[in-house]
UniProtKB/TrEMBL annotation:
InterPro entries (UniProt xref): Glyco_trans_2-like, Nucleotide-diphossugar_trans, TPR-like_helical_dom_sf, TPR_rpt
UniProt organism field: Paenibacillus sabuli
Glycosyltransferase 2-like domain span: 5-111
Taxonomic superkingdom: Bacteria
UniProt name for this protein: Glycosyltransferase
SMART domains: TPR (SM00028)
Lineage: Bacteria, Bacillati, Bacillota, Bacilli, Bacillales
Length: 370
């Protein structure tokens, strides 16, 4: 059986650290916590859970902090989490089972990272990350901001999910943007990956025109990871939407089709663009295509499950209703409801479609009798 070191970097996480450590400690053999300057009870909470706590002088470099934590580990494998992550009971059990059965030839195990959920508990945004890595391989974190773990060798995908459960408002929402801009002031060159994530920060802070410039630079440079390039097309569309440029928004969504087969996320974006134009026939084509596409193979890119399940079906119902095809619309609304059976809007649609169909039947019967 392998042994596992949990490695974390933290700062002022007293609101969530207890929850995180309690959710995973039964599966790990040691806990390494690198603190980057907490002024609350974070270190005390970590020590209460038996963690080895180390101080790290913050240098605007997340990779450096994570590499410091990894360097302190002594187990055969390293698991990393953030303080606002948790393992639910079934995923903890899966991790414990993996610990007993993992082939020691495996260099890295990916786990799903569920970043957000809807009001019914359905995952709305997820991706995969290399979560459990063999310590002897010496894998390193790269990137001062939005760092990533560079791995290679024998990698397997697990069915374990890590849930992101933030405690509320981000403590310093401008932190990453400030780090990037301090680097730019110093004259540091941004890598293609940095360009993408800097654009994301600009977008998230409402600086859409600047974000567009960096997304264009990143996409046009041709050196980015393909998943980031595809994602950047969608974010570019979001920026144009915020600026009210509907034509550029549509063109940005269509731009993603240059980089591979259509994905449900972009079919929904394009369908929505045509809905905005009240071209329901064209919109229905794209939403119908989305319903035929299977979820992506296990890759490390972002994934929105709604675009493979209820969303295109609901939108297709709306389009068909606008086109007067009530019976078809009702069928698609029922399919959407199968994914969200308590959705009030869809239940309202059911009542509406039932009434419309009864009216059509009554009109047909009346016409046949005259």
């Amino acid at each position: 059986m392998i042994s596992i070191s949990l490695c974390m970097i933290v700062k002022n996480e007293e609101a969530v650290l207890e929850r995180c450590l309690s959710s995973v400690k039964e599966a790990v053999d040691e806990i390494i916590v690198v603190d980057t300057g907490s002024g609350d009870r974070t270190k005390t909470i970590a020590e209460q859970h038996g963690a080895h706590v180390y101080d790290f002088e913050w240098i605007d470099d997340f990779a450096a902090a994570r590499n410091t934590a990894f360097a302190k580990a002594t187990s055969t494998y390293i698991l990393w989490l953030d303080a606002d992550d948790v393992l639910e009971a079934d995923d903890l059990a899966k991790l414990q089972s993996l610990k007993r059965t993992l082939d020691p030839s495996v260099d890295s195990v990916t786990m799903r990272y569920d970043l957000s959920h809807d009001e019914f508990g359905n995952v709305t945004f997820s991706l995969r990350r290399n979560r459990l890595v063999k310590r002897s391989r010496g894998f390193r974190w790269i990137g001062a901001v939005h760092e990533y773990l560079e791995v290679g060798g024998h990698i397997i995908n697990s069915d374990i999910a890590v849930k992101h459960r933030s405690a509320g408002k981000e403590k310093d929402p401008g932190r990453n943007l400030k780090i990037y801009e301090r680097r730019l002031v110093k004259g540091d060159a941004l890598t293609p990956r940095d360009q993408y994530y800097y654009a994301n920060e600009l977008k998230d802070h409402g600086r859409h025109s600047e974000a567009i410039s960096y997304y264009d630079r990143f996409i046009g440079g041709g050196a980015g990871w393909i998943e980031d390039v595809i994602s950047a097309c969608g974010k570019l569309a979001d920026c144009y939407h915020a600026l009210g440029d509907r034509q550029a928004e549509l063109e940005a969504s269509l731009r993603a089709l240059q980089y591979g087969a259509p994905r449900a996320e972009f079919c929904c974006r394009i369908g929505y663009a045509f809905m905005q134009r009240k071209d329901y026939e064209a919109a229905s084509v794209w939403y119908r295509l989305a319903t035929t596409l299977v979820p992506p193979a296990e890759h490390l890119g972002f994934h929105n499950p709604a675009c493979h399940t209820w969303l295109p079906r609901l939108q297709l119902a709306v389009c068909l209703d606008r086109l007067g095809r009530i019976a078809e619309a009702s069928v698609w609304n029922e399919q959407a409801l199968s994914y969200r059976p308590e959705d009030a809007a869809m239940l309202g649609n059911r009542t509406y479609f039932l009434k419309r169909l009864q009216e059509e039947e009554a009109a047909a019967a009346s016409g046949g009798q005259s």
